[in-house]
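Notes on consecutive records. When two proteins share a document, each keeps its own sequence and its own token line. Never mix them. Below: protein one.
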Amino acid sequence: MSLSPSLDGPRTTRASTPPGTSPLHRDPAEPDEITRIVPRRRPGRWLSAGVALLALAMAVNSVVRNERFQWGVVGRYFTTPAVLDGLLLTLWLTAAVMVLGFLLGTALAVMRLSANPVLNALSWGYIWIFRATPLLVQLLFWFNIGALYPTLGLGIPFGPEFLTFKTVNLFGPTLTALIGLTLHEAAYAAEVVRGGILSVDAGQTEAAASLGLSRWRVLRRVVVPQAMRSIVPTAGNMLIGTLKGTSIISVLAVQDLLYSVQLVYNRTYQIIPLLMVATLWYVLVTTVLSVAQFFVERHYARGAARELPPTPLERLRHRVTAVSVRVAASRRRGEPGRESPRGDGGEERST
């Protein structure tokens, strides 16, 4: 038996030709040689996977069996009305900030790409200011806007005012958080939208313009659908970041998820289990948003990829099918009375 080694791929073996016989003059009555491809063994891959699973099991064991987490308290407060009310406010604030932020950010991106130097400069200055200032500073500034502008009015510049109102009566904690987060989000959304628009090949817009399409129709039917493939992944990260970033408004005494939990543990002194309640809710909502982001990306991948990426259920089904096929094949090879794949007079090939 002779071996045919391979450096990168699987190894194949063939039955040796009897001495004194040319392979070109083999007896036609002899059975055809069967070639079996044996996968290359990779012990390092299985060893690293075993070490990683061992480390994960140790970490999970240390969390589950640690009595100081007080999992009973976590389960008792997980669905209390105070926590659920804070969760609803967090979700509402996240959705409102993302919608308003991307609407304003899209307008800023269009201004930034405009040939008008005034609009371009104003958009650049807005993005520069709000990206250069920490979010907490912006929230505190808007929360104390009454100290800078006690009253606000509508009227003619340097002329009479038609409508005036006190700032203290207008800007409450929730509205202040909404305004601060939206203005901050718009600066980053503008750059995301601008990058997505610039990622579209210029030949696409030139071809659409040559067909006589208006600029608005080119933007809506040609540029935006292709730009979404670049916008959606970053926008998904921004959505998850905004969900977690809303916890910073607890400094303004807005009863979001984190502040609601803080109110409870300030009364019961059960800090760790109540923080675990907030953590589990953030993890749960983030997981749902990540799954939704996957399907949105898969939707906009149509036309750009020959085959859409498989869903997690499809990947699991393919792996289960592959394992069942391997098990069935190994059982068939191990049944008595069945011949192993060998050449005529040769031995079964191995690695």
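Protein two starts on the next line and is unrelated to protein one.
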Amino acid sequence: MRIDLHAHSTASDGTDTPAGLVREAAAAGLDVVALTDHDTVGGHAEALAALPAGLTLVTGAELSCRLDGTGVHMLAYLFDPEEPELARERELVRDDRVPRARAMVGRLRELGVDITWEQVARIAGDGSVGRPHLATALVELGVVPTVSDAFTPDWLADGGRAYAEKHELDPFDAVRLVKAAGGVTVLAHPAAVKRGRCVPESAIAELAAAGLDGIEVDHMDHDAGTRARLRGLAADLGLLTTGSSDYHGSRKTCRLGEYTTDPEIYGEITRRATGAFPVPGAGGSAR
């Protein structure tokens, strides 16, 4: 089985529609794909309606968190999307995205960048607006060559010159809320140093003690040495280890299935989940 547990659609900051994403996943030879848009489950219904035969969809979200000033992304799988407390927190984060993005547009303009809110809104479309949309605008304007190059202290990285804060969950609260909604939590790309400051291993240990299920080890932003170190840490802490592409369509260079999760780990994730269950495709509509 080929299993990719981290992918984004136009419901947040990917460039493929949810329907297009599941079709691409099937074409890439995946057996299982997780749709984990930022702080939203808005793409799930469309993805399920278009799910091709032979592909299983894991519903999820990537929750925006912050710990001691450091951004933390928490992958949440197979939770009940109607659970009220978690739904309310996701809504608070989403509602804060537009004011935050507008603030970053203002800061970029103060830095001499000829960016406009209209440009960013056009790029975001119906998705949940975020920094990748501003980064795409910077690419369009020729300020940086790639989206990744916008995530530096000069521009949009945590604490960068154009950075602005938004409402974010405490990761310990995220673990608690997802568990209460019957879901499974995996810390996304925990050692991606190019994105800015990383969560210290001591904090990962505390999260593990609080109920964190796993860490994303095999990821494009982790080199071989980092992956080996994280695997050792996970073994010490009794955490599951996953692998994923963190696919964003054409917005990033990663490909669906570039990194994958071991089928036994996937099986354990599904065994732990009680809020929702993976959905096998029966041949969806060609939307």
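For the record: The first strand starts at residue 3 and ends at 7.
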